[in-house]
Amino acid sequence: MISWFTWIQVIIAVASCIVALGVGIAGRKPNDLSVGGVALSGVLLLVQIVLAIVGPMMGNQIVGDGLEFWMYCISAFLIAVAAVLWSLIERERWSNAVLSIAAFSIAVMVFRMQQVWDGSAPLIGA
After folding, report:
1. What predicted TM-score, i.e. pTM, was given to this entire model?
2. How far is residue 11 from each of residues 28, 41, 56, 117, measured CA to CA in Å?
3. 48 in any annotated domain
4. For the residues of 10-28, what is the DSSP string, one character each?
5. Which of 33, 30, 19 lies closest to 96, judged by CA?
6. pLDDT digits over 55-99, tens only?
7. Can you give the residue range of the structural domain that contains 9?
8. Which of 35, 50, 47 is nearest to 82 (CA)?
9. Which of 52, 72, 74, 65 is nearest to 5 (CA)?
10. Per the domain annotation, does 47 fall within a domain?
């Protein structure tokens, strides 16, 4: 993974979390800003999937567990898609809570993906 791209993804996901939480606390329905942030995170995750496929061909090999990396990557993408769809179907203020939790989860998962890719992830039980 490219570390600067990882940090961009994490910053956008955290900002999306804060915006969605703020819109929800204000009692408003999901708007373009709260939904758009999570949708942007989903698009960036799609780019990350392409980079993770192309990266090893260019010499950027994964050091950690490849299966763990791909499960985080695919799960984070599915969380983004599910949260955006949820907010478009359920147009109420609580959908912003779903968007906020999804964005925070994406930020944590992308950070963890970087750890797994670099092999800097702590071993469980070690």
Report:
1. 0.89
2. 24, 10, 25, 19
3. yes
4. HHHHHHHHHHHHHHHHTTP
5. 30
6. 889 988 888 888 999 999 999 999 999 999 999 998 888 899 999
7. 3-118
8. 35
9. 52
10. yes
Amino acid at 107: A
**First-to-last C-alpha distance (Å) of the chain:** 25
Long-range contacts of residues 104-107, Cβ cutoff 8 Å, at least 24 apart: 104/13, 104/14, 104/17, 105/76, 105/79, 106/9, 106/13, 106/38, 106/41, 106/45, 106/76, 106/79, 106/80, 107/9, 107/10, 107/13, 107/14, 107/17
80 contacts 102 by C-beta, under 8 angstroms: yes
| 109: in domain | yes
CATH of the domain at 64: 1.20.120
Domain assignment of residue 49, yes or no: yes
